[in-house]
Automatic annotation (TrEMBL):
The active site is at C55, Y192. Keywords: Transferase. This is Glutathione transferase. The keyword Nucleotidyltransferase does not apply. InterPro entries: Glutathione-S-Trfase_C-like, Glutathione-S-Trfase_C_sf, Glutathione_S-Trfase_N, GST_Omega-like_C, GST_Omega/GSH, Thioredoxin-like_sf. SUPFAM superfamilies: GST C-terminal domain-like, Thioredoxin-like. Glutathione binds at W88, R122, Y123, T124, V125, E140, S141. The keyword Metal-binding does not apply.
């Protein structure tokens, strides 16, 4: 691969000139379909997903595969959690393989360039790969999540299918999508806008918006019909999307991203109860612990992991 290809993206530069972090729009946006005649039909042994165990966006997909019992249909390939100047790599650390099992690559970037030599975006996880066409289906976690649970039903054990146990029940779709929108902008991405800010103004701007949304989530959980999970009796897509940010909040974002006005465990009792309930569920609702099994407090995108605040969630 020519070196020039590797210089398109400055991997370690996250904020723009004005100190604001602006997330780039994901560029691979194909969809797998349950329709066998579609260009990317749902099949076993055809797709794999690249993730790392520290990333909240990749964690969504990891939870989903465990929740739906799809880990043998769409295998997971793990990269190291440390972002080095060449991007995500295979080192054998953080549960990663020592080389890409499909092509022997050292870096995830090589896979992106295999899909498209002209690609100029960021080399992100999660990344859903089609072994047959040797291309990336999608690198947008929200859409990977949707296609995996809506299009692979035929491969899911009967009692966990969307038709029986929906993650997006029709009657709640509008409410869930409304919540997804503000939670994405101010919480999931809000912690990054705060943590990657390189000016005081940018940090202040996003910090307060983030905490206003946590207050709003606390209120949401007080309302009838919003317990034990965000939208009632069953786990929905909204719980998955909120969980991956909340489980990292006290453990990482408070210190690493300076999201430290309040902590979930002390100032948000309802949110904390919800988080503990989802994390500790090892019963039918979580398919025997999909959330806990996929949470790795020992994998963080920082060579040194702060010892505190203690991971209280680890205590039953
Ligand atoms: N919109 C993407 C964002 C994914 C994303 O930003 N992933 C991070 C890891 S937490 C990443 O791979 N960053 C590497 C980079 O930006 O170079 C999604 O939701 O899938």
């Amino acid at each position: 691969m020519a070196t020039a290809e590797f210089e398109k993206t400055d991997i370690l530069k996250l904020a723009d000139q004005d100190g604001q972090f602006r997330r780039k729009v994901s560029q691979f946006r194909n969809f797998i379909s349950s329709d066998p005649s579609s260009p990317f039909p749902a099949e076993k042994d055809r797709y794999v997903v690249y993730i790392n165990l520290g990333c909240p966006w990749a964690h969504r997909v990891n939870i989903l595969l465990h929740l739906k019992g799809l880990t043998s249909v769409i295998p997971i390939i793990i990269v190291d959690c440390q972002l080095v100047p060449n991007g995500w790599s295979f080192t054998g650390d953080d549960y990663s393989a020592t080389a890409d099992p499909l092509y022997g690559f050292k870096y995830l970037r090589d896979l992106y360039l295999k899909a498209d030599l002209e690609y100029t975006g960021r080399y992100t996880v999660p990344c859903l790969w089609d072994k047959k066409n040797e291309t990336i289906i999608s690198n947008e976690s929200s859409e990977i999540l949707r296609m995996l649970y809506s299009e692979f039903d035929a491969f899911v054990p009967e009692d966990r299918r969307e038709s029986v146990k929906p993650l997006l029940p029709k009657h709640l779709q509008k409410e869930i999508e409304e919540m997804n929108e503000w939670v994405y902008n101010t919480v999931n991405n809000g912690v990054y806008k705060t943590g990657f800010a390189t000016t005081q103004e940018a940090y202040d701007e996003h910090l307060h918006v983030l905490f206003a949304s946590l207050d709003r989530l606390e209120k949401h959980l007080e309302q009838p019909g919003h317990s034990p999970f965000l939208f009632g009796e069953h786990i929905t897509e909204a719980d998955i999307r909120l969980f991956t940010t909340m489980i990292r909040f006290d453990a990482a974002y408070v210190t690493i991203f300076k999201c430290n006005l309040k902590m979930i465990r002390y100032e948000y009792p309802r949110l904390h109860d919800w988080l503990r309930r989802v994390y500790w569920d090892e019963g039918e609702e979580s398919n025997c612990g999909a959330f806990k099994k996929t949470t790795h407090f020992d994998c963080a995108p920082n060579a040194i992991i702060p010892a505190g605040p203690l991971h209280n969630i680890l205590l039953p």
